[in-house]
UniProtKB/TrEMBL annotation:
Protein name: FH2 domain-containing protein
Listed Gene3D superfamilies: Formin, FH2 domain
Source species taxonomy: Eukaryota, Metazoa, Ecdysozoa, Nematoda, Chromadorea
Coiled-coil blocks: none
FH2 domain residues: 1-158
Pfam families, sorted: FH2 (PF02181)
Tree of life domain: Eukaryota
SUPFAM superfamilies: Formin homology 2 domain (FH2 domain)
Signal peptide residue numbers: none
The species this protein was found in: Panagrolaimus davidi
Length: 158
């Protein structure tokens, strides 16, 4: 027998080789996988907390105020107390007098000029990062780790 064949024959004699190899792989990759979870949950936690920030509230109030101001010329339009968040996507479509100048540009200038202490752009970047997280993939990975640790634990207790 060649050396490779002897090695395979020896491996075949090891009891529960597949389970042992999986447990070693779990031990090697566990810390990295947990670190990914920590980073992901940290991003989600910060993103959720950002929804309650003063800058975001101020910007949304500003959008509402400007919308009411623009609609005041229409006598039949009542004062609005809310708007659909999908409206935010169309702020750049409301054009101004200058070429390539929109309502979104005006709101951005207003935020920069009048409310400099608020860091809306940084907070929007945090929310954007949190929105990109795939919750289903996180659940699958968590269930995978849970299943692997349970399998190894059960094998050890036998």
């Amino acid at each position: 027998m060649t050396e490779a064949e002897r090695f395979l024959a020896y491996c075949a004699k090891v009891p529960s080789l597949k389970t042992r190899l999986r447990s070693v792989l779990l031990k090697i990759t566990f810390d990295d996988r947990v670190a990914v979870f920590k980073d992901t949950f940290s991003t989600l936690t910060i993103g959720i907390a950002t929804f309650y920030s003063e800058s975001l509230k101020l910007f949304l109030n500003l959008v509402l105020f400007v919308g009411n101001y623009l609609n005041r010329a229409n006598q039949n339009a009542p004062t609005t107390y809310a708007f659909k968040l999908s409206l935010l996507k169309s702020l750049d479509k409301v054009k101004g007098n200058e070429q390539n100048y929109s309502l979104l540009h005006a709101l951005q200038e207003l935020m920069n000029d009048e409310f400099q202490q608020h860091s809306l752009l940084a907070e929007l970047n945090i929310i954007s990062a949190a929105a990109k997280i795939d919750i289903a993939a996180i659940k699958n990975e968590f269930n995978s780790i849970k299943g692997e640790t349970t399998s190894v634990s059960n094998w050890i207790l036998q």
